[in-house]
Amino acid sequence: MPRKALQVCPTPGCPNLTPQGRCPGCQAQARAERPTSHSRGYDRRWLRASAAYLQDHPYCECDDCAPLPPLQRDLATEVDHIDGLGPLGPRGYDPANWQAMSKAHHSRKTARDTFGH
Ligand SMILES: [Zn+2]
Ligand SMILES: [Zn+2]
Q1: Ligand 2 centroid vs 63 CA: distance in angstroms?
Q2: pLDDT score, position 40
Q3: d(Cα 101, Cα 60) in Å, to the nearest integer?
Q4: For residues 96 and 108, what is the distance between their CA atoms, to the nearest angstrom?
Q5: How confident is the model at residue 116, as a pLDDT?
Q6: DSSP conformation letters of 66-86
Q7: How many whole angstroms from 23 Cα to the centroid of ligand 1?
Q8: 28: number of CA atoms within 13 Å, CB side?
Q9: Which of 4, 9, 63, 108 is most buried, by the most CB atoms less than 10 A from its CB?
Q10: Which helix or strand (DSSP H or E) is residue 45 part of?
Q11: What pairing do the DSSP bridges indicate for beta strands 17-18 and 7-8?
Q12: Which pLDDT score, from 0 to 100, does residue 3 have?
């Protein structure tokens, strides 16, 4: 069997051939239909506010990193909402509700919040 056999796009009714998964057109459409981070409040205003916060809080402030000296922590790249409600929550723009985090530690915390209870 040739390695890159084309198959019909799995989207019902779509006749396009594609090497794997959905054809590019259907992929783009699936992306467009998914709720974007923008609709959850992660818009330009939030990006500006969180970027400013990260300048003052360059190191990860997660529970695991907090006890470590700054140089042993991960560099923070995102701002987490301690209340878990995001920028649209009542404290979405309250810096006391923010925590600078590295991407890896942020996903770890999100996973714990989701599965840990
Ligand atoms: Zn398709
Ligand atoms: Zn951390």
Answers
A1: 7
A2: 85
A3: 4
A4: 21
A5: 53
A6: TTS-GGGSPBP-EEEETTS--
A7: 4
A8: 3
A9: 9
A10: helix 44-56
A11: antiparallel
A12: 62
Cα of 77 to ligand 1 centre, how many Å? 35
Domain boundaries, the chain: 1-34, 41-115
Residue count (the chain)? 117
* Token couple for 28: 């783009």
pLDDT digit string, tens, across residues 77-101: 999 999 989 999 999 999 999 999 9
CA 28 to chain CA mean position, Å: 19
Output the average pLDDT for the chain. Answer: 89
Residue 38 has pLDDT above 80, yes or no: no
69 C-alpha to ligand 1 centroid (Å): 51
Q: Is the pLDDT of residue 35 over 90?
A: no
**Cα–Cα distance for residue pair 76/67, rounded to 1 Å:** 15
The angle at the Cα of 13, spanning 7 to 15, to the nearest 5 degrees, equals 40
